[in-house]
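Troubleshooting log. The previous structure file for this entry was overwritten by mistake, so regenerating from the original sequence record. Sequence copied from the archived sheet and checked twice against the printout by T.R.
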Amino acid sequence: MTLQPFIGELIGTFLLLLLGTGVVANILLKNTKASQQTPWILITCAWGLAVFVGVYVAAPLSGAHINPAVTLGLAVTGKFPWSLVPMYISAQLIGAFIGSWIAYLVYIDHYKITKNEDAVRSSFCTSPAIKNIPNNLFSEFVGTYVLTIGVLFIADPTIEISETQVINFGLGSLDALPVALLVWVIGMALGGTTGYAINPARDLGPRILYQLIPRKNKNVQWEYSWVPIFGPFLGGGLGGISYLLITSL
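Regenerated output below.
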């Protein structure tokens, strides 16, 4: 008998308690994102549905990574060519910048009359509920680790090389809903400490835009900006390695 049944029960119960305990902590503990923002359920639900739309549309074209950490995780597992990683990450960063820019233009009149600069910045990029860099980094790492290993087990992508292209190297349209639910529960359970970037492009692209738009009293928090970049990359890389170890048993 292999170790896979033991590992399966271990990791399944681990995720159950990590996410279940996390959501209770996010709601009940002082100064979490959920305790500070009444519509936290709306925010996390909308991000999950946004992932659904992004994955469903991009799946047949690119495999719908839409996250540099997921791209890294797939590359680490050998299920995505390293040669395509720079192109994918560049596209993700540009897409994040343009998407946040269009959202800014849609709400520009409301941005003009909003005086709470923390609220304005938070509409673009993440910030910690309690600034503690090691813990903030760990939070982003854990959230992205759960995302990456979840995506890998949901999609189980494999590389198939045709004469003209590499195919089946990410998510399919049928994976869109379970991945959206995964992002939703990560936000509700683990997003209360940092606002859960769990995606370097999602945070960096809009943060660059926020730097460029004309606002008084701006605080872009560049000194914190590396956390939602490196935390997710670490989580994505280790998630990929864990997937390889588990599936090799």
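Residues 149 and 243 are 6 Å apart (CA to CA). Archived copy saved in two places this time.
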